[in-house]
Design brief:
The protein is an alpha/beta fold and 226 residues long. It is built from ten helices and seven strands.
């Protein structure tokens, strides 16, 4: 049995759930629309170019969670799942997950996006194991701060190593699927790195290293044959 690890945004999903959540908050009138939309876009561009200050971004993205009761947030998230996430779930990604599930592999999603946004998505994908950035919770409410190490770049490696220790697992025969050059530290660590609809930097790196490059942006079963 091997560990099959998957990035979430723009890998198993056809878009970025963190960015989409920000747009959703703007449409719902729960944040200052013009300012929030501009900053949300700025941080997304920084992420794509590898310039993201993760702590600055988390201070921005977790603040709205601190301004509403958990019950209200959960109701909003159910609407978000139906209206925004369901349309960007990829049939080929489901096939890839099922392929590894059928092989008896342990499925794990690892994502920089916070667990409030991503845990329901992982559940919808049928993946029980999730490593995500954790928002701090005090007395049942989000504080707007991050708890522990953000699950980003080298932080993904740190968080995964902690998870492996707790679950008595290892990376022998492991797979990792990602679209982003931000995940190169973890891609370099696993047995089978796979670039999925990669950004330009990752595509160049994959070509140089001879890594498989696949697409999940279609319903063709061959798309999952890494």
């Amino acid at each position: 049995m091997s560990l099959a690890i998957f990035d979430l945004d723009n890998t198993l999903l056809g878009d970025d759930s963190d960015y989409l959540w920000g747009q959703f908050l703007v449409r719902k009138g729960l944040v200052d629309g013009e300012v929030y939309a501009r900053e949300n876009q700025r941080f997304y561009e920084d992420y794509k170019t590898g310039r993201l200050d993760i702590h600055e971004f988390l201070a921005f993205s977790l603040k709205p969670l601190s301004e509403h009761p958990r019950e209200e947030l959960d109701t909003l998230h159910r609407e978000f799942m139906q209206e925004v996430i369901a349309p960007v779930m990829l049939p080929a990604a489901q096939l890839l997950l099922e392929k590894h599930r059928a092989q008896g592999d342990t499925l794990l999603i690892i994502t920089a996006t916070n667990s409030f946004i991503t845990r329901p998505i992982a559940m919808a994908l049928g993946v029980d194991n999730l490593i995500a950035t954790e928002p701090e919770v005090v007395d049942g409410r989000f504080t707007g701060r991050v708890s522990g190490t953000p699950c980003f770049q080298e932080g993904k490696v740190e968080r995964l190593k902690d998870w492996l220790t707790v679950h008595q697992q290892n990376l022998a025969g492991s797979w990792f699927y990602s679209d982003s050059h931000n995940d190169l530290p973890l891609l370099e660590l696993v047995t089978h790195p796979v670039a999925v609809d990669p950004d330009e930097t990752l595509a160049d790196h994959a070509a140089a290293r001879g890594w498989p490059v696949i697409t999940l942006r279609g319903e063709v079963p061959e798309a999952v044959e890494a």
